[in-house]
Amino acid sequence: MDLPTNYISEFKEYALQLAEAFKVGIVISKPTGGIVLQVGYDSHPIENVRNVDLHIEGGVNFNLEISSTAHVSETALNAIEKSLNFCLNDLYQRYRIERYEMFLDTAADWFWESDPDNRFVYLSGKVEDVLGLRPAQIIGHTRREIHGRQHDLSTPQWQAHLKQLERHEPYCDFETRWVRPDGGIRHISLSGQPIWTQKGEFAGYRGTGLDITGKKQAQIDFQNLVEGSIQGICIHRHWEFVFVNPALVKMCGYDSAQEFLAVGSVEKMIAPYERERLYEYRLAKERGEQIDTHHVADYLTKSGEVITLESINSLIEWKGQKAILSTVIDVTQQKKAGQKLQEHRDQLQMLVDERTQDLMKSEQRFRNVAEAASDWFWETDENHKVTFISERFYELFDLTHEEVLGNSRLEIVENQMKIPDVSQVWSQHLESLNHHKPFSIRYWVRGRRADRVCIEIKGKPLFDDGGVFKGYIGAGSDVTQEVETQEALRLAVKEAESANSAKSDFLSNMSHELRTPLNAILGFAQLLENNGQANMTERQLMQLKHIRLGGEHLLELVNEILDLSKIEAGKLTIIAEDVDLKNLIDMCLPYASAFSEKYNVKIEDRSVDGLPLIWADALRAKQALLNLLSNAAKYNQANGTVWIDTMETSDGFVRVTIRDNGIGIRESDKEKIFQPFQRAAGQDGVIEGTGIGLVLTKKLLEEMGGRIGFESNYGEGSAFWLDFPQSVTPEKSNAPPDQMQQVDGRSVCAPQTHYTMLYVEDNPSNLSLMAGIVDCIPNLRMVSAHTAEIGLTMLQAQKPDLVLMDINLPGMDGFQAVREIRALEKVKDLPVFAISADALSDTISKGQDAGFDRYLTKPINLPHFMSILDEVLK
Ligand code: ADP
């Protein structure tokens, strides 16, 4: 311990005085070498040099050198040495006391001493600063007296302390509260050491007092803070809890801190699955590794419920030892919410994944469809340069990426595919491109495998949000096969059409060829029957009738075949109108009676008036009805009956049923009777027929929007019915019988004045047939010409009232002739009728186009013809 400078100076001063008084030289130095003092004395000669060590307690050591002349006695030198030694030790003692006082001053606020009765005998002045009492107010009093004034000393704490005092035990840091006279509160800490006499008798206490108000307040503040915190706080050391605040106690479901602390180990509170992880954390912390002070883990409450706590851990000093302070918050709800959120996120992710999958699938599907629909895809930029084209293109055409990308389609086709002239195809295409319109073009190019490949390119323009053209996107396909197939199909259709027209021509010609002689046969037969009855024998009349019936049958057959082929060729013209079914049936009855005669059956007409009008082509409806009537008579038994019934169906049709009690139809035959040329088994050669009547009837009905059906029991009879659609005209029919029926008597000749009819016909039998007809009309005369040219001349000269014109004439034909007539001013309004064996609807409409007023077909139906004459010449 070095002496402070002020003590050294005092020492030096003293040594100087001694040196002067004894007239000696003194050098005081440290053993390490530093000179503390050097006092020379110049009295000579130096005869004595004394070197001694100066010792003081506490280890301070100086070397002392005294140099003197012979005049200085040994005693004087001894005195100098002792004096300096004494001075140094005295200085040192003083300095020690001063230091202790300084220490005490800093270690405690006041000192005190008490006597064996524990009465204060001494108190340092500072006590007043803390307690607000002067030492004099305390001296002479015991602690019990002083503190008893303001404390209940019966508390365990005070009782324990007072016992210590009685037992003269040392005590340390006895803390108590003090209320100053001015009301201020101080917390003080007292420590005391008993004093014993050399005989071992108790002499009192000596001790210190400390004002710990600041520390105590800090403790209280800390406690308030910790106790009042909603955050959990705990302190643990080596995983043993040493402190816990109420918030954490509550968080973990305990009733008190004691109960909590009784659990002891942190480990017991950690959820089992977290233990290993947290143990690792603890080890790392103990190893002093830099680890995150913040962590989240699951813990168990008192009831075993899992809670999630988030804590921040820091190393602190707790009661003199290292410990961990953890501040804790309960994040269970957040975690659950987080988990929920995560679940939602996962679900969302799943949905997104699913949607992505779906999208990928639909994209794949789209690709598949697109690939199936086309062979390659392409894209061009705003300058029509190809920016992308799918690989399939390169497989189909012998081109490289360099030859394609960056070039326009025109460049690729012209330069790479070497197509000589594409200008024609392209002018229109370029127009579309320039106007940024969608396009679809086809052109031929050279392919990898074939010299000529027809490709179809379809493109769609692309625009950005601002409507600026960005290029085209599109697809291309090899349509060679399709184009070739179409071409083959077109040729086939053309061939079929020409074959069909050849068939129509053939049918037309055949019917013409057959009808012309039939015209003569039937016409003359009718004439003979009408006019020659008187001159003919019964037998001849019978024969004549056979001729007529045979002719009619033949005509019927020709007509049916013609009709059937017309229907098949789609050329049958149906002219539907409002028709009264009852009227129609009445018109058929004369024919039906012919059948009844022939097959020896009875016809019973039970049809009723007042049915709704039907919508039908009268001629075709009659044809169908007659066909059924003829069958009912034909496939009947001797003396059988044919019944005609009518009714209105519930679904908007009017039905006529032709029933017979004839042979009926076997089940096995029922299917085939509506097939062409199919007849019931065993009828060929027995009952005359061709097997096309029902087919035709069915087709006619269907053409008119009607239907046909039948019921039949073999051996008992059949019932065939025809359903005609009702007319849209609502009124029921009660019209008088048709005009035709009146003229049907063949003897009625309407015209009374003189009329001339010009008949242009090259066939002599037709001419004489017509002459015969005209003969029976009193006021009509006929002139004839066998060519159109002659006819035209006669026409202008004689101005007839009516012209009948054959179509197939040598030289100018009937069509040309009528055109000529319509061009001649004087005669252009004349009624001109075509009369031809050609009954094809095409020819008929051609006739109407050429200018004919009517188109009559051969053989002539006499009553019909006469009614027309009647009408025209009226
Ligand atoms: P076709 O009478 O010329 O043979 P259809 O087409 O008119 O031809 O009739 C076809 C077949 O239907 C006849 O051959 C006949 O076998 C049968 N058939 C038609 N009507 C009757 C009927 N009323 N009774 C019995 N069989 C009939």
UniProtKB/TrEMBL annotation:
GO cellular component: plasma membrane
InterPro entries (UniProt xref): CheY-like_superfamily, HATPase_C_sf, HATPase_dom, His_kinase_dom, HisK_dim/P_dom, HisK_dim/P_sf, PAC, PAS
Domain called Histidine kinase: residue spans: 509-728
SMART domains, alphabetized: HATPase_c, HisKA, PAC, PAS, REC
Signal peptide: none
Class in the EC hierarchy, top level: transferase
Keyword Oxidoreductase (UniProt): no
Annotated positions of the 4-aspartylphosphate modification: 806
Protein's recorded name: histidine kinase
